[in-house]
Amino acid sequence: MEIKINKIILLSFYFILLQCSPSVDDEKKENIFVIATYDDVKDWDPATAFSLEVFPMSNMYEPLLWYDAGSKPSKFLPGLAVTYSKSKDGLTWTFNLRDNVFFHDGTKFNSEVVKFVVERNKKLNGGASYIWSSVEQIIINNPLQITFILSSPVPFDKIVSSQYGAWMYSPSITNVSKDSLLKGFGAGTGPYQLKKWVRNKYILLEKFDKYWKGWKKENHYDSILIQVASESSTRLQMIQSGLADYAVLIPTQLLKTLENNPNVTISYHQSWTNEFYLLNTKKYPTSDLWFRRAIASSLDRNTLVNYVYKNTALEAKGLIPHSIPLYNEPDSLLKFDLDIAKDYLKKSKVNLINTKIDLSYVSTYEEYRLTAFMLLDNLRKIGLELELKPGLWSTNWDKAKNLDTAPNIISMAWWPTVSSPSDWFFALYNTQESPLFNLSYYSNGHLDSLTKKAWELESIEPEKAKEIYKKIQNILIDDCVVIPAVDIKIPSIRKNNIKGLKSNPAYSTIFIYELSKN
After folding, report:
1. Which of 422, 411, 425, 423 has the alpha carbon at shortest distance from 483?
2. How far apart, in Å, do the first and last CA atoms of the chain sit?
């Protein structure tokens, strides 16, 4: 039964009861899409944003191309570029841009803007700016045509369709102070623009009337409210009661309560997301290889799939999702065996007396919590004490980026920036002086060069690239840098009156412009 009360008023009342009111009573719009999520954004600069910003920013900004990985075969679709071509050697790429496109601040989109964005991203050298590292020269042919000269033949169409770092934004960002950026900023070409942000409570987006695609489709959503609700039980209540249209990260154990709800639909989609546990290779005692192997041999993936994740995940067979193109299964993972784990401990140089290790995991995710307790129990059986440190991802991440506060083990989920196996290997394991996502503090020059080589071979000799990706996995497994857990099937938890939702594993977000109400 459709809720007749104004949704915004009802939401405000609901969150007052929870002592976390979004205070948007002044917005009296009925046609609003509400997303209940578990944490807030950290960075409003589209050049460097690299986490949960994907939810609002994918609706505010657009890249030159989109990658449709849900179609068979997968294909690139026009975005802010209508056509493109490349040279035979893969070093020269030319893009013809869309005309009559404007940013939210009124600035016109053209080739000068594209050049500005790429050069600024490279200069800032933050977030996913590494995707542009192969750009050697940018040539503006005319206001609607631009050419990139590359230093190596990388698959540049994958770069310009990246999930992060490829968004086009207005040059007016240079006039925005750092303090203003921290308070919320947005000037893209996308269908929605930033209206209001209250930190750790909500983000409100409203439709951009001058969006180049127009608003012809019936029942378009006029606004998007991304509501932060850290407790999974709260997100569950929101979707149960009709206060949310879409809920993120509802534990498998709670999904059963929605099965008989006639107003809620749950479906599972293939994704390029996997979950794993990074082991700190620089911090004692996980700096010892045999000690790390003992921990890795104590994680029971079969139990995870059958009892923790159930039908929402598949057992990991490698270090990247099995469904991504160029996946090549490694020779073997360290298997679960507590007797072998004990032997590894004996081989280590760690004095086990009074030795304690810690695990940082996302407290808003029940599957992580259950996995943490399973690992705690198994490690206790081999004589190791594990201290559990649950917290919000944003807090865990900040601590993990500083070796002094970093844990021995940290839970991680990864979805790709660039739709390539290299994205995992570069972002997570490439040598980094100041770690961003290399939270294992791993450094291997040989592996760095292999990742670069495989990436360059993807578009010209993909089978060779595939073999190198297998070799990279074998090295990381031998060095026991990471414990793979599961490949995720993404649950879509939504009201059943929503239509237009499509599965596209290349992007871990929701494109609200494509949706409408029945």
Report:
1. 411
2. 13
pLDDT tens profile 258-291: 888 999 999 888 889 999 999 999 999 999 999 9
Take residue 57 and report the two structure tokens written for it: 């920013």
Q: Which two tokens stand for residue 34?
A: 């509400």
Only one residue has tokens 């029945």, namely 518
Residue 401: count of CB within 10 angstroms of its CB: 16
**Strand, coil or helix: what is 492?**
strand
Instruction: Give the SS3 label for residue 140.
Output: strand
Q: What are the φ and ψ backbone dihedral angles of 459, each rounded to 5 degrees?
A: -90, -15
Would you call 507 exposed, middle or buried from its count of C-beta atoms within 10 A (0-12, 13-18, 19+)?
A: buried
- Residue 9 DSSP SS3: helix
Query: What pTM was computed for the model?
Result: 0.84
Q: Which pLDDT tens digit goes with each residue over 83-134?
A: 999 999 999 999 999 999 999 999 999 999 999 999 999 999 888 898 999 9
* Alpha helices, H only, 297-365: 301-303, 338-347
500 Cβ neighbours under 8 A, 6+ residues apart: 514, 515, 516
Task: Give which of 53, 344, 309 is closest to 188, Cα–Cα.
Answer: 53
Angle, helix 462-478 to helix 445-457, in steps of 10 degrees? 160
Burial (Cβ within 10 Å: 0-12, 13-18, ≥19) of residue 254: middle
Return the number of other C-beta atoms located less than 10 Å from residue 405's C-beta: 10
Cβ distance 29 to 232 under 8 Å? no
Domains and CATH numbers, the chain: 7-60+176-269+490-517 (3.40.190.10), 65-172 (3.90.76.10), 271-489 (3.10.105.10)
Region of residue 468 (left: phi > 0; alpha: psi -120 to 50; beta: else) = alpha
- Within 8 A by CB and 6+ apart from 114, the residues are 64, 80, 95, 97, 138, 146, 168
Across the strands, what pairs with 195?
none
Core vs surface per residue 80-100: b (16+ CB within 10 A) or e: bbeebebeeebbbbbbbbbee
